[in-house]
Design a protein that fits this description.
Blueprint lengths: L4 E3 L1 H8 L3 H14 L5 E3 L8 E6 L2 E7 L5 E8 H4 L2 H4 L7 H8 L1
Parallel strand pairs: 1-5
Antiparallel strand pairs: 2-3, 3-4, 4-5
Length: 103
């Protein structure tokens, strides 16, 4: 089944700041995510309903929407997703906290 993938502005802005190879890898991974392919796992912490897609040292956090689409609210580097503070974030209201962690 092919799904619609809706990356947030944070994911798009994050990818724009990367080197061309990493940017291409993220673009390719988002295309593969439409078919639910890739290194997908459920995070270990309190992020029920969210999943992570591994792309080299980058991670895309995503969830399945009620309409069957895939929402991608955040893209982070591995060292941030391994951080316990980041794993316990409430993703519904975390854009500012994620932004602070990325500085």
């Amino acid at each position: 089944m092919i799904r619609v993938v809706r990356p947030s502005t944070q994911v798009i802005d994050f990818a724009k700041r990367l080197a061309p190879e990493s940017r291409r890898a993220i673009k390719h991974a988002l295309a593969e995510l439409r078919r639910e392919q890739g290194d997908i796992r459920s995070p270990e912490a309190n992020l029920s309903g969210y999943y992570r897609l591994r792309i080299g040292r980058h991670r895309i956090i995503f969830s399945y929407a009620a309409d069957g689409a895939i929402d991608c609210p955040h893209c982070l580097t591995k060292n941030l997703t391994s951080d316990r503070r980041c794993l316990t974030l409430n993703l519904t209201n975390s854009a500012t906290r994620i932004g602070r962690l990325l500085r």
